[in-house]
Amino acid sequence: MILVTGATGHVGGELVRRLAAAGEPVRAMTRRPAEARLPAGAQAVYGDAADPASLDAAFAGADGVFLMSAQAVGTAPEPTHDLALAAAAARAGVRRVVKLSTLDGGTGSDPIARWQTTAEAAVTDPARGFVWTLLRPGRFMSNALRWTGQLRAGDEVAIPFADRPAASVDPADLAEIAALALLSTEQHAGVVHELSGPQSLTPTQELAVLGEILGRDLRVRPVPTDAARAGMAGYGFPSEVVDAIMRRTLDGDRGAEVLPTVEKVLGRPARTFTQWARAHRDEY
Ligand SMILES: NC(=O)c1ccc[n+]([C@@H]2O[C@H](COP(=O)([O-])OP(=O)(O)OC[C@H]3O[C@@H](n4cnc5c(N)ncnc54)[C@H](OP(=O)(O)O)[C@@H]3O)[C@@H](O)[C@H]2O)c1
């Protein structure tokens, strides 16, 4: 049986659907099992990474787990959710662990790097004995769903750093690779997959693609740097983490790099933003 954490999220949700469709016994962890809309064959289970004691029942009997954390960097002295999830997997005797991390998160020595390095080490530590795979994607195409509220109100969307390109990746491609790593041979054991989509686009360009698909003339409203900073603080990031995000954003990172991994692993091209937007048009 495979336990999927973040099972109501973009990656975990796709992964649950994929595993269930393949006839794999799958358990979907959520803090609201009664509300989870799951495919036939998937079983909802309660689990809260902020409450480590709740995780033992969720992890019991799992052979493989997909781990993700929604805890915002710097909102605790260390990544307590990642640490709790990995510890629960170890207590349950899980063998195979696929962890969703982030591209270059652990690079450098800023608070983001310290956080991601600790989070990944909780899974890769040889003492744990996991057969692990790390997924390190850049920006997600699903970030464009953050525009839905503004698009209900009109055709203008306030987007910070709208001209900064990124090779965003479709969460469905991440889920497909996670499923392979959880189910297949040892091919993905001890492997770090750095992942991107097939082309580098700015949010301005992504909005134009979306506008074409929705048949609307959508426009970007630029967000001044100060307002972008305030927005990040609104997510609960402490100021040193906001500084680190700003440095990474303004000094450039590897987010715009088109990486060959999806095509190499899946044997077909990574899904484009146009494909993603067509698949998700009803959500707008
Ligand atoms: N967005 C990006 O551009 C990007 C880029 C690189 C890496 N990432 C990484 O990808 C991950 C986000 O993946 P996603 O987009 O698939 O997630 P998502 O759609 O944002 O969903 C968040 C998931 O986390 C679960 N969750 C929240 N708090 C929880 C808690 N206390 N205990 C257990 N589960 C909890 C939620 O489940 P319930 O609410 O049902 O409990 C939900 O399933 C993050 O780790 C992020 O760092 C994101």
Question: What key attributes describe this structure?
Answer:
284 residues, alpha/beta, Rossmann fold, seven-stranded parallel beta sheet, two-stranded parallel sheet, binds NADP nicotinamide-adenine-dinucleotide phosphate
Notes on the structure:
There is one protein chain. The chain is of the alpha/beta class and 284 residues long. It has a single domain (2-283), classed as NAD(P)-binding Rossmann-like Domain (Rossmann fold). The protein has helices spanning 10-21, 55-59, 80-91, 111-124, 148-153, 171-183, 203-214, 225-234, 239-251, 261-266, 273-279; strands spanning 2-4, 26-30, 42-46, 64-67, 96-100, 131-137, 156-159, 191-195, 219-222. Strand 5, helix 4 and strand 6 form a beta-alpha-beta unit. Helix 1 crosses helix 6, helix 3 (80-91) packs parallel to helix 4 (111-124) and helix 7 crosses helix 11 (273-279). The mean pLDDT is 96. Residues 5-12, 30-32, 47-50, 68-70, 100, 102, 137, 139-140, 142-143, 171 line the site of NADP nicotinamide-adenine-dinucleotide phosphate.
User: What's the gyration radius in Å?
Assistant: 19 Å
Taken from the alpha-carbon principal axes, the silhouette is globular
The DSSP helix count reads 11
Q: Tell me about the biggest sheet?
A: 7 strands, parallel
What small molecules accompany the polymer chains?
Answer: NADP nicotinamide-adenine-dinucleotide phosphate
Low-confidence stretches: none
**Coarse structural class:** alpha/beta
Summarize the structure in short.
This protein has 284 residues and is an alpha/beta fold. It contains eleven helices and nine strands. The chain binds NADP nicotinamide-adenine-dinucleotide phosphate.
